[in-house]
Design brief:
Elements: H1 2-41, E1 46-47, E2 52-53, E3 57-60, E4 65-67, E5 72-73, E6 77-81, E7 84-85, E8 88-89, E9 94-96, E10 101-102, E11 107-110, E12 114-116, E13 121-122, E14 127-129, E15 132-133, H2 138-141, E16 150-151, E17 156-158, E18 163-164, E19 169-170, E20 174-176, E21 181-182, E22 187-188, E23 196-199, E24 204-208
Parallel strand pairs: 1-4, 2-5, 3-6, 4-9, 5-10, 6-11, 9-12, 10-13, 11-14, 12-17, 13-18, 14-19, 17-20, 18-21, 19-22, 21-23
Antiparallel strand pairs: 7-8, 15-16, 23-24
Length: 214
């Protein structure tokens, strides 16, 4: 009888854990996400309706960042807009359109201007930057990287409905045209035309899709 009661209690415990554990985890995750979203949204320069921002997030200079409606970001997002590096001052601007989705562990760094259009889908571990630490002059190379002057060659513009694959790096002074597709692990150093597929390091155009005239 005693053995039977132990078995029964153990079975009930397993059954309850099986039913409640996933629900409990989802509830806690939702609560943390809601708190994170509210905390970040209040610090942004502008934020549209229905954002979802996962925990954890690393941020700097949220007052220089605008986010549109229905923004979704999974955990591990890094959003950085720097207005100063040592004695140098900058006027950063990050603008993200409506219905943009970031998957896990993405990183945006800005001292100049980064614009992401509407309907952009970004896979995990994507890095987008508009600046460099130093250049390749002898004077610059005498300094540790973090001590070099930060400079930008130009803004990063990602137009509407772009799909950016896993592990992509997008460098300064690049425009990615509407409906473009960037393959996984590509390093984008030059403009990508609209309706194009780009892959590789450095990224090259492998296909152009004719736009519909209907």
């Amino acid at each position: 009888m005693k053995r039977f009661l132990k078995w029964l209690l153990r079975s009930l415990a397993k059954g309850i854990a099986f039913v409640l554990h996933p629900l409990f985890v989802r509830l806690i995750h939702k609560m943390i996400t809601n708190i994170t979203t509210e905390y970040i949204a209040k610090q942004l320069l502008a934020c549209g309706k229905n954002p979802t921002i996962g925990f954890p997030i690393t941020s700097h200079g949220l007052r220089y960042i605008k986010i549109g409606e229905n923004f979704r970001a999974s955990s591990g997002l890094i959003l950085e807009a720097y207005d100063r590096h040592f004695e140098e001052q900058y006027t950063p601007e990050i603008t993200i359109g409506d219905n943009v989705i970031f998957n896990y562990d993405c990183h945006i760094g800005c001292v100049n201007k980064i614009v992401i259009g509407n309907g952009v889908l970004i896979a995990s571990k994507v890095y987008i930057t508009d600046h460099f630490h130093g250049d390749t002059t002898k004077e610059s190379l005498k300094l540790p990287p973090n001590s070099r002057k930060v400079f930008s060659k130009g803004a990063v513009i990602i137009e509407d409905n772009v799909w950016i694959g896993e592990g992509v790096v997008i460098m300064p002074n690049v425009t990615i045209g509407k409906n473009a597709i960037i393959g996984a692990n590509a390093v984008v150093t030059k403009d990508v035309p609209a309706n194009s597929v780009a892959v590789g390091n450095p990224a090259k155009i492998i296909k152009t899709i004719e736009a519909s005239h209907e």
